[in-house]
């Protein structure tokens, strides 16, 4: 689809066979991807898979060697002044004006985007930095710096937001708080493209995820459908004291049985039948079931399982 | 608030909040004034009959101002690129000229304060510098000199990726140039070939023009030659600076 075939502007990002090499390394190796407006899109993949390069191509910071890129109907590499304020980009947690306070930094960023500093206070509130607004950026903790970097992407109220591992340095509470911020942004109709290593988070937040391996997107769907399409295996964890390994291997439906600490781990294709048998021979007390998560699908696809 | 104003304000705050750097920016040329002033106290130059202080003060001043302009922008550019702040700026509609203009304003401000402080101290006993009536002409020369050394600093800040590299490159440029351009020692004391080489260095033109304006060591023609030289170097270094400027350390 070309931008002209999208008169209603329903597409936020459209990539067609995008390629980018560094020497002999194909960082991005033929990616075709469409992100509709209002979608929360997660880009997953191991380090070095090309996620950051791909996002930077969408941001216009890098030019692809081949392929077409359309962001909100524009070519981002042209750095058109009408496009830039509509994009929000989370910076590195080091990209601050030295010796300024969090508020002063954000006011400067707002001015760079040509917007009034009115939004600075509410943006600090959004990312939970109000109490630290007057602290120098150099004195902020790792998590606080990260939240300020996210605030830098939001202060001008962009339509399309790029976040690069936004929850990486956050403690569990701050992470949950940020989830809410991201959900609210999506609720307000913003499009979010983000990279993460937290698969539970991607499963929780994303409308769709793309799993990137060696420069290509190897899976692209909703987390639910990816999980359903993945392995049908369920794992049962039974206290080892009550189920000898030899017995476990003979139970119906069991593919493999291994000992992990004080539990026997059964991988089964037919969890109902296996569970019924386990109930007979060992009882169900302390038995845990592990269904497939996005993490399993991810590990399978990235070849690390 | 415009991007230019915001960036100037951010730069101003960063400067005044770094008290150590601020102090030494202004103290550095004064230290040289004191050292050379004490070594050559009361001595006159053989040929011209000028006091040594009337020779060394303008030279040390132009060197100190050029040094601060080069180091200042060199460090800031290296740091902004290393911290990815340039990437942030690049993602905004703010134009590169606005960014550079804000740094230019700051450099001019620092240079003027340096010069006023320096000349004020040089006029005190025991140095007793006396100003020529044409001293206001030193101001445009000062602005032009700062511009030249700022463009050199942009090149240094684009080449260097660490603070150590900025300091190493800048010192290698500025310290030999100070001696070869006659900032510390009179050109007349130098061998003929060094005097010839000095005309290939921007500091020589800065020294001559500042000296002519401030203490009357030359006439309007000398100031014009100095300004023309600085202008030529600004054009050359500016072109190189545009070529070498990088938004990011990663290609």
TrEMBL record, chain A:
Organism of provenance: Streptomyces lonarensis
Keyword Transport listed: yes
Annotated protein name in UniProt: ABC-type xenobiotic transporter
Alphabetically ordered keywords of this record: Antibiotic resistance, ATP-binding, Cell membrane, Membrane, Nucleotide-binding, Translocase, Transport
Taxonomy, superkingdom: Bacteria
Domain ABC transporter: start-end pairs: 13-239
Residue ranges that the Swiss-Prot or TrEMBL entry lists as coiled coil: none
Chief place where the protein resides: membrane
GO CC, any one term: plasma membrane
GO biological process annotation, one example: response to antibiotic
Molecular functions per Gene Ontology: ABC-type xenobiotic transporter activity; ATP binding; ATP hydrolysis activity
SUPFAM superfamilies listed in its UniProt record: P-loop containing nucleoside triphosphate hydrolases
From TrEMBL, chain B:
Keyword Nucleus appears in the UniProt entry: no
Family matches, as Pfam families: ABC2_membrane
Superkingdom assignment: Bacteria
Molecular functions (GO terms): ABC-type transporter activity
ABC transmembrane type-2 domain residues: 20-248
GO biological process, one term: response to antibiotic
Subcellular location: Cell membrane; Membrane
InterPro entries registered for this protein in UniProt: ABC2_TM, ABC2_TM_bact-type, ABC_2_transport, Nod_factor_ABC_transporter
UniProt keyword list: Antibiotic resistance, Cell membrane, Membrane, Transmembrane, Transmembrane helix, Transport
One annotated Gene Ontology cellular component of this protein: ATP-binding cassette (ABC) transporter complex
Transmembrane segments: 21-40, 60-80, 101-125, 137-159, 166-185, 223-242
Annotated membrane topology: Multi-pass membrane protein
Keyword Glycosyltransferase: no
Family: Belongs to the ABC-2 integral membrane protein family.
Protein name, UniProt field: Transport permease protein
Source organism phylogeny: Bacteria, Bacillati, Actinomycetota, Actinomycetes, Kitasatosporales
């Amino acid at each position: 689809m070309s931008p002209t075939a999208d008169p209603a502007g329903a597409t936020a990002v459209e990539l067609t066979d995008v390629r980018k090499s560094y020497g002999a390394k194909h960082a991005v190796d033929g990616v075709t991807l469409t992100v509709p407006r209002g979608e929360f899109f997660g880009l997953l993949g191991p380090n070095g898979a090309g996620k950051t390069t791909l996002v930077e191509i969408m941001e216009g910071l890098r030019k692809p060697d081949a392929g077409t890129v359309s962001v909100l109907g524009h070519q981002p590499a042209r750095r058109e002044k009408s496009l830039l304020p509509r994009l929000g980009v989370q910076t590195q947690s080091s990209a601050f004006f030295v010796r300024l306070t969090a508020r002063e930094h954000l006011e400067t960023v707002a001015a760079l985007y040509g917007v009034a500093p009115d939004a600075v206070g509410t943006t600090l509130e959004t990312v939970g930095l109000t109490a630290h607004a007057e602290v120098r950026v150099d004195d902020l903790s790792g998590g606080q710096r990260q939240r300020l970097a996210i605030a830098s992407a939001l202060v001008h109220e962009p339509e399309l937001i790029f976040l690069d591992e936004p929850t990486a340095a956050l403690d569990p509470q701050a992470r949950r708080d940020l989830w809410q911020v991201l959900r609210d942004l999506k609720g307000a109709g913003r499009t979010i493209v983000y990279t993460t290593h937290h698969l539970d988070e991607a499963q929780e937040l994303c409308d769709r995820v793309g799993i990137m391996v060696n420069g290509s997107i190897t899976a692209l769907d909703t987390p639910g459908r990816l999980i359903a399409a993945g392995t049908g295996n369920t794992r049962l964890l039974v206290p080892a004291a009550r189920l000898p390994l030899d017995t476990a291997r003979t139970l119906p439906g069991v593919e493999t049985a291994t000992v992990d600490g004080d539990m026997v781990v059964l991988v089964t294709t037919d969890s109902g039948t296996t569970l019924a048998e386990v109930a007979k021979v060992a009882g169900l007390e302390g038995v845990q079931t592990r269904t497939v998560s996005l993490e399993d699908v991810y590990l399978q696809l990235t070849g690390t399982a | 608030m415009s991007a230019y104003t915001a960036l100037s304000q951010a730069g101003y705050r960063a400067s005044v909040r770094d008290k150590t750097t601020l102090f030494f920016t202004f103290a550095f040329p004064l230290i040289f004034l004191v050292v050379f002033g004490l070594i050559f106290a009361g001595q006159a130059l053989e040929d011209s009959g000028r006091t040594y202080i009337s020779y060394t003060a303008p030279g040390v001043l132009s060197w100190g101002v050029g040094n601060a302009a080069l180091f200042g922008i060199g460090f800031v550019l290296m740091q902004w690129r290393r911290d990815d702040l340039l990437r942030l700026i690049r993602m905004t509609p703010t134009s590169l000229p606005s960014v550079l203009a804000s740094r230019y304003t700051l450099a001019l401000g620092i240079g003027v304060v340096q010069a006023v402080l320096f000349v004020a101290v040089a006029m005190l006993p025991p140095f007793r510098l006396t100003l020529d009536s044409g001293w206001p002409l030193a101001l445009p020369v000062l602005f032009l000199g700062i511009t030249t050394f700022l463009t050199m600093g942009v090149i240094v800040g684009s080449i260097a990726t660490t603070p150590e590299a900025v300091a190493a490159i800048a010192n290698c440029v500025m310290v030999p140039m100070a001696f070869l351009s006659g900032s510390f020692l009179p050109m007349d004391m130098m061998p003929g070939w060094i005097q010839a080489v000095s005309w290939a260095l921007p500091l020589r033109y800065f020294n001559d023009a500042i000296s002519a304006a401030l203490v009357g060591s030359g006439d309007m023609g000398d100031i014009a030659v100095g300004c023309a030289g600085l202008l030529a170097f600004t054009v050359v270094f500016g072109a190189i600076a545009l070529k070498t400027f990088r938004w990011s350390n990663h290609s």
